Amino acid sequence: MTEPTTTSDPRPPAASRKNRRRHQAARIVDGTTGWKLMLLKIIVLSILCATAVYAALVLFMNDRWLIGSLVVVGAAALTWIYLQRGALPAKYLAPGLVFLLIFQIFVVLYSGYVAFTNYGTGHNSTKDHAIQAILLQTQDRVPDSPTYPLTVTESDGEIHFAIINDNGEVLIGAEEQPLEPAEGAVVDNGTITAIEGHHVLSFADLLNRQQEITNLAVPLEEDLNAGYLRTQDGQRAYLYTSRYVYDENADTLTNSETGTVYRDTGEGAFIAEDGEKLMPGWRVNVGFDNFVRAVTEESIRGPLIYVTLWTFAFALLSVATTFILGLFLAIVFNDRKMVSRKYYRLVMILPYAFPGFLSALVWAGMMNQEFGFINNVLFGGAAIPWLTDPWLAKLSILIVNLWLGFPYMFLVCTGALQAIPDELTEAAQVDGAKPFQAFRMIKLPLLLTAIAPLLISSFAFNFNNFNLIYMLTGGGPRDVSAGVNVGSTDILISMVYKVAFVGARADYGLASAFSILIFIIVGTISIMAFRKTKALEELN
Questions:
Q1: Buried/exposed 50-65: b ≥16 CB within 10 Å, e otherwise
Q2: Contacts for 178-185: CB closer than 8 Å, 24+ residues apart
Q3: Any idea which of 184-188, 247-251, 265-269, 482-486 has the lowest mean pLDDT?
Q4: pLDDT attached to residue 276
Q5: What's the CA gap between 282 and 128, in Å, rounded?
Q6: What is the pLDDT, as a whole number, of residue 260?
Protein backbone atom coordinates (compact mmCIF):
# COMPACT_ATOMS: atom_id res chain seq x y z
CA MET A 1 0.00 0.00 0.00
CA THR A 2 1.55 3.34 -1.06
CA GLU A 3 1.43 6.33 1.20
CA PRO A 4 -0.09 9.51 -0.17
CA THR A 5 2.43 12.15 -1.20
CA THR A 6 2.20 15.62 0.32
CA THR A 7 3.18 18.90 -1.32
CA SER A 8 4.65 21.63 0.85
CA ASP A 9 3.19 25.14 0.67
CA PRO A 10 6.03 27.54 -0.21
CA ARG A 11 4.29 30.43 1.58
CA PRO A 12 5.04 30.95 5.28
CA PRO A 13 2.23 30.24 7.76
CA ALA A 14 -0.35 32.94 8.28
CA ALA A 15 0.81 33.50 11.86
CA SER A 16 4.37 34.00 10.66
CA ARG A 17 3.30 36.54 8.04
CA LYS A 18 1.26 38.42 10.63
CA ASN A 19 4.21 38.56 13.05
CA ARG A 20 6.46 39.79 10.25
CA ARG A 21 4.06 42.61 9.40
CA ARG A 22 3.89 43.56 13.07
CA HIS A 23 7.68 43.75 13.29
CA GLN A 24 7.82 45.86 10.12
CA ALA A 25 5.20 48.25 11.50
CA ALA A 26 7.08 48.46 14.80
CA ARG A 27 10.33 49.29 13.00
CA ILE A 28 8.61 52.01 11.00
CA VAL A 29 7.13 53.57 14.13
CA ASP A 30 10.44 53.34 15.99
CA GLY A 31 12.32 54.79 13.01
CA THR A 32 14.71 51.81 12.81
CA THR A 33 14.05 50.73 9.23
CA GLY A 34 17.68 50.27 8.24
CA TRP A 35 20.77 52.29 7.51
CA LYS A 36 19.78 52.96 3.89
CA LEU A 37 16.58 54.74 4.84
CA MET A 38 18.40 56.60 7.60
CA LEU A 39 21.07 57.72 5.14
CA LEU A 40 18.40 58.92 2.71
CA LYS A 41 16.67 60.76 5.54
CA ILE A 42 19.90 62.50 6.56
CA ILE A 43 20.65 63.53 2.95
CA VAL A 44 17.16 64.98 2.43
CA LEU A 45 17.22 66.83 5.75
CA SER A 46 20.71 68.15 4.99
CA ILE A 47 19.51 69.57 1.67
CA LEU A 48 16.48 71.06 3.43
CA CYS A 49 18.60 72.70 6.14
CA ALA A 50 21.14 74.01 3.63
CA THR A 51 18.34 75.54 1.52
CA ALA A 52 16.74 77.04 4.62
CA VAL A 53 20.04 78.57 5.78
CA TYR A 54 20.66 80.10 2.33
CA ALA A 55 17.11 81.47 2.15
CA ALA A 56 17.36 82.85 5.68
CA LEU A 57 20.67 84.62 4.91
CA VAL A 58 19.17 86.22 1.79
CA LEU A 59 16.11 87.33 3.77
CA PHE A 60 18.25 88.72 6.61
CA MET A 61 20.42 90.65 4.13
CA ASN A 62 17.23 92.24 2.76
CA ASP A 63 15.99 93.08 6.29
CA ARG A 64 13.25 90.43 6.18
CA TRP A 65 13.88 89.38 9.77
CA LEU A 66 10.47 87.93 10.56
CA ILE A 67 10.22 85.72 7.47
CA GLY A 68 13.86 84.67 7.80
CA SER A 69 13.31 83.66 11.42
CA LEU A 70 10.22 81.67 10.46
CA VAL A 71 12.23 79.82 7.81
CA VAL A 72 14.88 78.87 10.38
CA VAL A 73 12.30 77.78 12.96
CA GLY A 74 10.38 75.76 10.35
CA ALA A 75 13.50 73.94 9.15
CA ALA A 76 14.53 73.18 12.73
CA ALA A 77 11.05 71.85 13.52
CA LEU A 78 11.02 69.57 10.47
CA THR A 79 14.49 68.26 11.30
CA TRP A 80 13.44 67.50 14.88
CA ILE A 81 10.25 65.74 13.73
CA TYR A 82 11.95 63.44 11.24
CA LEU A 83 14.99 62.59 13.38
CA GLN A 84 13.17 61.53 16.52
CA ARG A 85 11.71 58.08 17.07
CA GLY A 86 7.97 57.65 16.73
CA ALA A 87 5.81 60.73 16.10
CA LEU A 88 4.41 59.01 13.01
CA PRO A 89 1.32 61.30 12.73
CA ALA A 90 3.54 64.39 12.81
CA LYS A 91 5.74 62.96 10.07
CA TYR A 92 2.73 62.52 7.80
CA LEU A 93 1.11 65.84 8.66
CA ALA A 94 4.24 68.03 8.47
CA PRO A 95 4.52 68.25 4.63
CA GLY A 96 0.86 69.16 4.27
CA LEU A 97 1.13 71.81 6.98
CA VAL A 98 4.20 73.31 5.32
CA PHE A 99 2.47 73.63 1.94
CA LEU A 100 -0.65 75.00 3.67
CA LEU A 101 1.42 77.68 5.40
CA ILE A 102 3.34 78.65 2.26
CA PHE A 103 0.64 78.57 -0.41
CA GLN A 104 -2.45 79.47 1.60
CA ILE A 105 -1.90 81.19 4.93
CA PHE A 106 1.18 83.18 3.87
CA VAL A 107 -0.51 84.34 0.66
CA VAL A 108 -3.60 85.50 2.55
CA LEU A 109 -1.58 87.29 5.24
CA TYR A 110 0.73 88.93 2.71
CA SER A 111 -2.23 90.12 0.63
CA GLY A 112 -3.71 91.60 3.80
CA TYR A 113 -0.42 93.37 4.51
CA VAL A 114 -0.15 94.77 0.96
CA ALA A 115 -3.70 96.16 1.23
CA PHE A 116 -2.44 98.62 3.86
CA THR A 117 0.52 99.87 1.78
CA ASN A 118 1.01 101.96 -1.35
CA TYR A 119 2.77 99.06 -3.08
CA GLY A 120 2.54 99.44 -6.86
CA THR A 121 4.17 101.06 -9.85
CA GLY A 122 6.58 103.71 -8.62
CA HIS A 123 6.36 102.43 -5.03
CA ASN A 124 7.80 98.94 -5.18
CA SER A 125 11.13 99.24 -3.39
CA THR A 126 12.88 100.81 -0.41
CA LYS A 127 13.70 104.44 0.17
CA ASP A 128 17.44 103.92 -0.42
CA HIS A 129 16.76 102.29 -3.77
CA ALA A 130 14.40 105.14 -4.71
CA ILE A 131 17.05 107.76 -3.93
CA GLN A 132 19.63 105.89 -5.97
CA ALA A 133 17.19 105.50 -8.88
CA ILE A 134 16.40 109.24 -8.89
CA LEU A 135 20.08 110.12 -8.90
CA LEU A 136 20.78 107.64 -11.70
CA GLN A 137 17.90 108.82 -13.88
CA THR A 138 19.00 112.47 -13.80
CA GLN A 139 22.70 112.10 -14.54
CA ASP A 140 24.73 114.37 -16.81
CA ARG A 141 28.38 114.08 -17.76
CA VAL A 142 30.63 116.44 -15.86
CA PRO A 143 32.15 118.96 -18.30
CA ASP A 144 35.89 118.42 -18.83
CA SER A 145 35.79 115.35 -16.57
CA PRO A 146 38.91 113.17 -16.64
CA THR A 147 38.98 110.06 -18.78
CA TYR A 148 39.59 106.83 -16.89
CA PRO A 149 41.07 103.85 -18.79
CA LEU A 150 38.56 101.13 -17.98
CA THR A 151 38.72 97.38 -17.51
CA VAL A 152 35.41 95.52 -17.33
CA THR A 153 35.33 92.34 -15.25
CA GLU A 154 32.75 89.79 -14.17
CA SER A 155 32.35 88.06 -10.81
CA ASP A 156 29.43 85.75 -9.91
CA GLY A 157 27.53 87.01 -12.94
CA GLU A 158 27.84 90.70 -11.94
CA ILE A 159 29.64 93.29 -14.06
CA HIS A 160 32.37 95.39 -12.38
CA PHE A 161 34.36 98.46 -13.45
CA ALA A 162 38.09 98.57 -12.61
CA ILE A 163 40.29 101.69 -12.99
CA ILE A 164 43.72 102.93 -11.94
CA ASN A 165 43.65 106.17 -9.94
CA ASP A 166 46.24 108.94 -9.93
CA ASN A 167 48.23 107.16 -7.20
CA GLY A 168 48.53 104.01 -9.31
CA GLU A 169 46.09 102.10 -7.10
CA VAL A 170 43.62 99.70 -8.73
CA LEU A 171 39.98 100.38 -7.73
CA ILE A 172 36.98 98.23 -8.55
CA GLY A 173 33.24 98.66 -8.04
CA ALA A 174 29.81 97.49 -9.16
CA GLU A 175 26.27 98.86 -9.40
CA GLU A 176 25.65 98.96 -5.64
CA GLN A 177 29.32 98.72 -4.61
CA PRO A 178 31.36 101.97 -4.58
CA LEU A 179 34.93 101.90 -5.82
CA GLU A 180 37.32 100.21 -3.39
CA PRO A 181 40.88 98.81 -3.60
CA ALA A 182 41.07 95.61 -5.62
CA GLU A 183 42.84 92.59 -4.16
CA GLY A 184 45.25 90.55 -6.28
CA ALA A 185 45.27 93.00 -9.21
CA VAL A 186 47.87 92.55 -11.94
CA VAL A 187 48.87 95.61 -14.02
CA ASP A 188 50.90 95.32 -17.22
CA ASN A 189 52.03 98.50 -19.03
CA GLY A 190 49.29 100.56 -17.37
CA THR A 191 46.54 98.04 -18.20
CA ILE A 192 44.76 95.83 -15.69
CA THR A 193 45.16 92.26 -16.91
CA ALA A 194 43.85 90.24 -13.95
CA ILE A 195 42.06 90.65 -10.63
CA GLU A 196 41.68 87.94 -8.04
CA GLY A 197 38.19 86.40 -8.15
CA HIS A 198 37.26 88.24 -11.37
CA HIS A 199 37.21 87.39 -15.05
CA VAL A 200 38.44 90.17 -17.33
CA LEU A 201 36.10 90.50 -20.29
CA SER A 202 37.56 90.30 -23.77
CA PHE A 203 36.62 92.61 -26.62
CA ALA A 204 34.16 90.00 -27.93
CA ASP A 205 32.57 89.78 -24.47
CA LEU A 206 32.22 93.55 -24.40
CA LEU A 207 30.35 93.50 -27.70
CA ASN A 208 28.02 90.72 -26.55
CA ARG A 209 27.14 92.55 -23.33
CA GLN A 210 27.28 96.09 -24.66
CA GLN A 211 23.86 97.21 -23.46
CA GLU A 212 24.41 95.84 -19.97
CA ILE A 213 27.78 97.60 -19.73
CA THR A 214 26.59 100.97 -21.06
CA ASN A 215 23.65 100.98 -18.65
CA LEU A 216 25.88 100.34 -15.63
CA ALA A 217 26.74 103.23 -13.30
CA VAL A 218 29.31 102.63 -10.54
CA PRO A 219 29.35 105.10 -7.60
CA LEU A 220 32.69 106.70 -6.80
CA GLU A 221 32.08 106.80 -3.03
CA GLU A 222 29.52 105.92 -0.41
CA ASP A 223 28.23 109.47 -0.81
CA LEU A 224 26.16 109.19 -3.98
CA ASN A 225 26.50 112.93 -4.61
CA ALA A 226 30.16 112.34 -5.53
CA GLY A 227 29.07 110.95 -8.88
CA TYR A 228 29.22 107.77 -10.94
CA LEU A 229 31.48 106.20 -13.53
CA ARG A 230 29.83 105.34 -16.86
CA THR A 231 31.09 104.17 -20.23
CA GLN A 232 29.90 104.06 -23.80
CA ASP A 233 32.46 101.71 -25.30
CA GLY A 234 33.77 99.58 -22.41
CA GLN A 235 37.28 101.08 -22.86
CA ARG A 236 37.00 104.52 -21.26
CA ALA A 237 34.89 105.75 -18.34
CA TYR A 238 33.73 109.27 -17.52
CA LEU A 239 32.36 110.99 -14.45
CA TYR A 240 28.63 111.65 -14.27
CA THR A 241 26.73 113.52 -11.57
CA SER A 242 23.04 113.97 -10.90
CA ARG A 243 21.27 117.28 -11.14
CA TYR A 244 19.70 116.41 -7.77
CA VAL A 245 21.70 116.61 -4.55
CA TYR A 246 20.68 114.44 -1.64
CA ASP A 247 21.12 115.87 1.88
CA GLU A 248 21.14 112.90 4.25
CA ASN A 249 20.88 115.06 7.40
CA ALA A 250 17.88 117.04 6.16
CA ASP A 251 16.49 114.08 4.19
CA THR A 252 15.86 116.24 1.12
CA LEU A 253 16.62 116.22 -2.59
CA THR A 254 17.48 119.58 -4.14
CA ASN A 255 17.46 120.37 -7.85
CA SER A 256 20.81 122.06 -8.44
CA GLU A 257 19.49 123.86 -11.55
CA THR A 258 16.24 125.32 -10.16
CA GLY A 259 16.87 125.17 -6.41
CA THR A 260 13.58 123.31 -5.78
CA VAL A 261 13.66 121.27 -2.58
CA TYR A 262 11.83 117.96 -2.35
CA ARG A 263 11.07 116.49 1.07
CA ASP A 264 9.90 113.18 2.47
CA THR A 265 6.36 113.91 3.69
CA GLY A 266 5.56 110.33 4.71
CA GLU A 267 3.68 109.51 1.50
CA GLY A 268 6.42 107.34 0.04
CA ALA A 269 7.92 109.98 -2.28
CA PHE A 270 9.91 113.21 -2.28
CA ILE A 271 7.43 116.06 -2.76
CA ALA A 272 8.00 119.77 -3.40
CA GLU A 273 5.93 122.53 -1.83
CA ASP A 274 3.86 122.89 -5.00
CA GLY A 275 2.94 119.18 -4.91
CA GLU A 276 5.38 118.00 -7.58
CA LYS A 277 6.61 114.45 -6.90
CA LEU A 278 9.91 112.83 -7.77
CA MET A 279 9.45 109.28 -8.95
CA PRO A 280 10.10 106.52 -8.23
CA GLY A 281 8.96 106.48 -4.64
CA TRP A 282 9.08 103.70 -2.09
CA ARG A 283 6.70 101.46 -0.23
CA VAL A 284 5.16 102.74 3.01
CA ASN A 285 2.19 101.84 5.18
CA VAL A 286 -0.86 103.95 4.36
CA GLY A 287 -3.37 102.46 6.80
CA PHE A 288 -6.91 102.31 5.44
CA ASP A 289 -6.25 104.77 2.59
CA ASN A 290 -6.80 102.12 -0.10
CA PHE A 291 -10.17 101.18 1.37
CA VAL A 292 -11.09 104.87 1.72
CA ARG A 293 -10.13 105.48 -1.92
CA ALA A 294 -12.30 102.58 -3.03
CA VAL A 295 -15.44 104.10 -1.46
CA THR A 296 -14.79 107.87 -1.70
CA GLU A 297 -13.11 108.55 -5.05
CA GLU A 298 -15.88 108.80 -7.61
CA SER A 299 -13.71 107.47 -10.45
CA ILE A 300 -13.15 104.28 -8.41
CA ARG A 301 -16.37 104.06 -6.39
CA GLY A 302 -18.65 104.19 -9.44
CA PRO A 303 -16.96 101.33 -11.30
CA LEU A 304 -16.66 99.35 -8.05
CA ILE A 305 -20.40 99.57 -7.39
CA TYR A 306 -21.22 98.75 -11.00
CA VAL A 307 -18.86 95.77 -11.11
CA THR A 308 -20.13 94.50 -7.75
CA LEU A 309 -23.76 94.56 -8.94
CA TRP A 310 -22.84 92.80 -12.19
CA THR A 311 -20.82 90.21 -10.24
CA PHE A 312 -23.86 89.36 -8.09
CA ALA A 313 -26.13 89.26 -11.14
CA PHE A 314 -23.69 87.09 -13.06
CA ALA A 315 -23.24 84.62 -10.19
CA LEU A 316 -26.97 84.36 -9.44
CA LEU A 317 -28.03 84.05 -13.07
CA SER A 318 -25.30 81.50 -13.75
CA VAL A 319 -26.39 79.30 -10.85
CA ALA A 320 -30.09 79.69 -11.69
CA THR A 321 -29.79 78.97 -15.41
CA THR A 322 -27.40 76.05 -15.08
CA PHE A 323 -29.46 74.52 -12.27
CA ILE A 324 -32.75 74.83 -14.15
CA LEU A 325 -31.37 73.35 -17.37
CA GLY A 326 -29.45 70.64 -15.53
CA LEU A 327 -32.50 69.68 -13.47
CA PHE A 328 -34.72 69.59 -16.55
CA LEU A 329 -32.33 67.30 -18.41
CA ALA A 330 -31.88 65.12 -15.32
CA ILE A 331 -35.65 64.63 -15.06
CA VAL A 332 -35.94 63.87 -18.77
CA PHE A 333 -33.10 61.34 -18.86
CA ASN A 334 -34.10 59.79 -15.55
CA ASP A 335 -37.15 58.26 -17.20
CA ARG A 336 -36.60 54.50 -17.46
CA LYS A 337 -38.81 54.33 -20.54
CA MET A 338 -36.33 56.35 -22.60
CA VAL A 339 -34.29 54.25 -25.00
CA SER A 340 -30.47 54.63 -25.06
CA ARG A 341 -30.58 57.22 -22.29
CA LYS A 342 -27.03 56.37 -21.20
CA TYR A 343 -25.72 57.58 -24.55
CA TYR A 344 -27.70 60.80 -24.25
CA ARG A 345 -26.22 61.30 -20.79
CA LEU A 346 -22.75 60.85 -22.23
CA VAL A 347 -23.42 63.55 -24.81
CA MET A 348 -24.76 65.90 -22.12
CA ILE A 349 -21.56 65.82 -20.08
CA LEU A 350 -19.20 66.43 -23.01
CA PRO A 351 -18.93 70.22 -22.35
CA TYR A 352 -17.86 69.36 -18.80
CA ALA A 353 -15.11 67.08 -20.10
CA PHE A 354 -13.23 69.83 -21.96
CA PRO A 355 -11.09 72.46 -20.16
CA GLY A 356 -13.14 75.56 -19.51
CA PHE A 357 -10.58 78.04 -20.80
CA LEU A 358 -10.31 76.20 -24.13
CA SER A 359 -14.08 76.18 -24.52
CA ALA A 360 -14.16 79.92 -23.77
CA LEU A 361 -11.56 80.56 -26.47
CA VAL A 362 -13.56 78.50 -28.98
CA TRP A 363 -16.72 80.43 -28.15
CA ALA A 364 -14.80 83.71 -28.48
CA GLY A 365 -13.87 82.71 -32.02
CA MET A 366 -17.41 81.66 -32.90
CA MET A 367 -18.78 84.97 -31.57
CA ASN A 368 -16.34 87.10 -33.53
CA GLN A 369 -18.28 89.97 -35.12
CA GLU A 370 -16.71 89.67 -38.57
CA PHE A 371 -15.50 86.09 -38.97
CA GLY A 372 -17.40 84.15 -36.31
CA PHE A 373 -19.40 81.01 -37.07
CA ILE A 374 -22.52 82.34 -35.34
CA ASN A 375 -22.76 85.53 -37.41
CA ASN A 376 -21.66 84.06 -40.74
CA VAL A 377 -23.58 80.78 -40.62
CA LEU A 378 -26.48 81.06 -38.19
CA PHE A 379 -27.35 84.70 -38.93
CA GLY A 380 -26.42 84.85 -42.61
CA GLY A 381 -23.43 87.17 -42.36
CA ALA A 382 -24.91 89.67 -39.87
CA ALA A 383 -22.41 91.82 -37.96
CA ILE A 384 -23.75 91.29 -34.44
CA PRO A 385 -21.28 92.68 -31.84
CA TRP A 386 -21.55 89.78 -29.40
CA LEU A 387 -18.37 90.66 -27.51
CA THR A 388 -18.03 94.41 -28.08
CA ASP A 389 -21.48 95.69 -27.13
CA PRO A 390 -21.84 96.05 -23.32
CA TRP A 391 -25.20 94.27 -23.01
CA LEU A 392 -24.61 91.67 -25.70
CA ALA A 393 -21.25 90.86 -24.12
CA LYS A 394 -23.02 90.16 -20.82
CA LEU A 395 -25.55 87.95 -22.61
CA SER A 396 -22.73 86.11 -24.38
CA ILE A 397 -21.00 85.39 -21.09
CA LEU A 398 -24.20 83.98 -19.60
CA ILE A 399 -24.77 81.78 -22.68
CA VAL A 400 -21.24 80.41 -22.63
CA ASN A 401 -21.34 79.84 -18.88
CA LEU A 402 -24.64 77.99 -19.31
CA TRP A 403 -22.94 75.73 -21.86
CA LEU A 404 -20.05 75.10 -19.50
CA GLY A 405 -22.04 74.74 -16.27
CA PHE A 406 -25.18 72.76 -17.01
CA PRO A 407 -23.38 69.34 -17.24
CA TYR A 408 -22.24 69.69 -13.62
CA MET A 409 -25.78 70.46 -12.45
CA PHE A 410 -27.08 67.62 -14.65
CA LEU A 411 -24.77 65.13 -12.94
CA VAL A 412 -25.56 66.42 -9.45
CA CYS A 413 -29.33 66.45 -10.00
CA THR A 414 -29.26 62.99 -11.62
CA GLY A 415 -27.52 61.53 -8.59
CA ALA A 416 -29.85 63.30 -6.16
CA LEU A 417 -32.98 62.19 -8.03
CA GLN A 418 -31.84 58.58 -8.14
CA ALA A 419 -31.24 58.70 -4.36
CA ILE A 420 -34.89 59.66 -3.69
CA PRO A 421 -37.07 56.53 -3.28
CA ASP A 422 -39.75 56.12 -5.94
CA GLU A 423 -42.17 54.94 -3.26
CA LEU A 424 -42.64 58.54 -2.09
CA THR A 425 -43.87 59.68 -5.49
CA GLU A 426 -46.02 56.61 -5.97
CA ALA A 427 -47.68 57.13 -2.57
CA ALA A 428 -48.46 60.74 -3.46
CA GLN A 429 -49.99 59.72 -6.77
CA VAL A 430 -52.11 57.11 -5.00
CA ASP A 431 -53.40 59.91 -2.79
CA GLY A 432 -54.48 61.80 -5.90
CA ALA A 433 -51.50 64.08 -6.55
CA LYS A 434 -50.60 64.79 -10.14
CA PRO A 435 -47.02 64.06 -11.33
CA PHE A 436 -46.01 67.73 -11.27
CA GLN A 437 -47.54 68.21 -7.82
CA ALA A 438 -45.73 65.15 -6.49
CA PHE A 439 -42.45 66.46 -7.89
CA ARG A 440 -42.95 70.00 -6.56
CA MET A 441 -44.14 68.97 -3.09
CA ILE A 442 -41.94 65.91 -2.47
CA LYS A 443 -38.96 65.50 -4.75
CA LEU A 444 -37.98 69.15 -5.19
CA PRO A 445 -37.68 69.91 -1.43
CA LEU A 446 -35.65 66.74 -0.89
CA LEU A 447 -33.53 67.60 -3.93
CA LEU A 448 -32.84 71.16 -2.75
CA THR A 449 -31.91 69.91 0.72
CA ALA A 450 -29.36 67.55 -0.79
CA ILE A 451 -27.73 69.93 -3.27
CA ALA A 452 -28.03 73.23 -1.35
CA PRO A 453 -24.32 73.19 -0.35
CA LEU A 454 -23.39 72.55 -3.99
CA LEU A 455 -25.49 75.49 -5.14
CA ILE A 456 -23.75 77.70 -2.59
CA SER A 457 -20.32 76.51 -3.72
CA SER A 458 -21.35 77.05 -7.35
CA PHE A 459 -22.33 80.62 -6.48
CA ALA A 460 -18.94 81.19 -4.84
CA PHE A 461 -17.18 79.69 -7.88
CA ASN A 462 -19.04 81.89 -10.37
CA PHE A 463 -18.49 84.90 -8.14
CA ASN A 464 -14.77 84.43 -8.86
CA ASN A 465 -15.03 82.88 -12.35
CA PHE A 466 -11.95 84.62 -13.70
CA ASN A 467 -11.17 82.21 -16.56
CA LEU A 468 -14.45 82.70 -18.42
CA ILE A 469 -14.39 86.51 -18.23
CA TYR A 470 -10.73 86.85 -19.16
CA MET A 471 -10.75 84.33 -22.00
CA LEU A 472 -14.05 85.39 -23.56
CA THR A 473 -14.16 89.18 -23.36
CA GLY A 474 -11.12 90.21 -21.33
CA GLY A 475 -13.56 92.21 -19.20
CA GLY A 476 -14.35 94.52 -22.13
CA PRO A 477 -15.57 96.65 -23.63
CA ARG A 478 -13.40 99.13 -21.70
CA ASP A 479 -14.98 101.87 -19.58
CA VAL A 480 -12.82 104.87 -20.52
CA SER A 481 -14.40 107.13 -17.89
CA ALA A 482 -13.32 104.93 -14.95
CA GLY A 483 -10.34 105.81 -12.80
CA VAL A 484 -9.18 102.19 -12.86
CA ASN A 485 -8.75 99.67 -15.65
CA VAL A 486 -12.24 98.14 -15.83
CA GLY A 487 -14.73 97.06 -18.51
CA SER A 488 -18.44 96.38 -18.86
CA THR A 489 -18.17 92.62 -18.29
CA ASP A 490 -15.54 92.67 -15.56
CA ILE A 491 -16.38 90.95 -12.31
CA LEU A 492 -14.61 91.77 -9.08
CA ILE A 493 -11.84 89.22 -9.47
CA SER A 494 -11.00 90.26 -13.05
CA MET A 495 -11.05 93.92 -12.00
CA VAL A 496 -8.58 93.06 -9.22
CA TYR A 497 -6.33 91.36 -11.77
CA LYS A 498 -6.42 94.38 -14.09
CA VAL A 499 -5.72 96.86 -11.31
CA ALA A 500 -2.75 94.78 -10.18
CA PHE A 501 -1.18 93.56 -13.40
CA VAL A 502 -2.67 95.14 -16.56
CA GLY A 503 -1.83 98.56 -17.91
CA ALA A 504 0.98 101.04 -17.48
CA ARG A 505 0.31 101.51 -13.75
CA ALA A 506 -0.08 98.63 -11.30
CA ASP A 507 -1.62 99.31 -7.89
CA TYR A 508 -1.09 96.21 -5.78
CA GLY A 509 -2.29 97.91 -2.60
CA LEU A 510 -5.66 98.85 -4.06
CA ALA A 511 -6.02 95.42 -5.68
CA SER A 512 -5.33 93.72 -2.34
CA ALA A 513 -7.94 95.94 -0.70
CA PHE A 514 -10.44 94.82 -3.34
CA SER A 515 -9.47 91.20 -2.64
CA ILE A 516 -10.25 91.62 1.05
CA LEU A 517 -13.62 93.12 0.16
CA ILE A 518 -14.34 90.13 -2.11
CA PHE A 519 -13.41 87.73 0.68
CA ILE A 520 -15.73 89.49 3.11
CA ILE A 521 -18.60 89.52 0.62
CA VAL A 522 -18.29 85.86 -0.39
CA GLY A 523 -17.76 84.71 3.18
CA THR A 524 -20.77 86.64 4.47
CA ILE A 525 -23.05 85.35 1.72
CA SER A 526 -21.88 81.76 2.21
CA ILE A 527 -22.48 81.87 5.97
CA MET A 528 -25.93 83.39 5.53
CA ALA A 529 -26.84 80.84 2.86
CA PHE A 530 -25.65 77.90 4.95
CA ARG A 531 -27.66 79.11 7.93
CA LYS A 532 -30.70 79.74 5.79
CA THR A 533 -30.73 76.25 4.33
CA LYS A 534 -29.46 74.59 7.53
CA ALA A 535 -26.99 72.79 5.32
CA LEU A 536 -24.36 72.72 8.01
CA GLU A 537 -26.59 70.64 10.27
CA GLU A 538 -27.30 68.30 7.38
CA LEU A 539 -23.59 67.85 6.71
CA ASN A 540 -22.87 67.18 10.36
A1: eebeebbeebeeeeee
A2: 178/218, 178/219, 178/220, 178/221, 178/222, 179/218, 179/219, 179/220, 179/221, 179/229
A3: 482-486
A4: 92
A5: 9
A6: 94
